[in-house]
Design brief:
Elements: E1 4-7, E2 14-17, H1 27-43, H2 53-77, H3 83-90, H4 94-100
Antiparallel strand pairs: 1-2
């Protein structure tokens, strides 16, 4: 087995490697590299967007309109379409359709 000189990914010093997969000269360099990478990710600024009351009200109204549209469509077509067909027709998730689908046991 040939020994190859490689550069450490953390300290960039050459080290003898017995395998092609070795990236670090020591376990310490490995740990330090990943700790530094984790610190850099933690230091990234996170943009915290707080929704205003107006946008929240608009989103709630949009959601209510969608629910009402879904209920009306289901009431009109539940006898001739399956929940899957309604889901595909309105492009909404199947679980949302099943939530408003009439229960035959009621």
């Amino acid at each position: 087995m040939a020994v190859v000189l490689r550069l450490c990914k953390h300290c960039e010093t050459p080290f003898p490697s017995k395998t092609q997969r070795a990236l670090y000269c020591s376990p310490t360099c490995n740990k330090e590299y990943h700790r530094n990478k984790k610190r850099q990710l933690a230091e990234l600024e996170v943009v915290n967007v707080t929704p205003t009351e107006e946008t929240t009200m608009k989103e709630n109204q949009k959601q209510q309109d969608t629910i009402e549209r879904l209920r009306a469509f289901i009431a009109k077509h539940c006898h001739c379409m399956t929940p899957l067909e309604v889901s595909e027709e309105l492009n909404v998730p199947l679980f949302a359709v099943k939530r408003f689908w009439p229960n035959p046991s009621r």
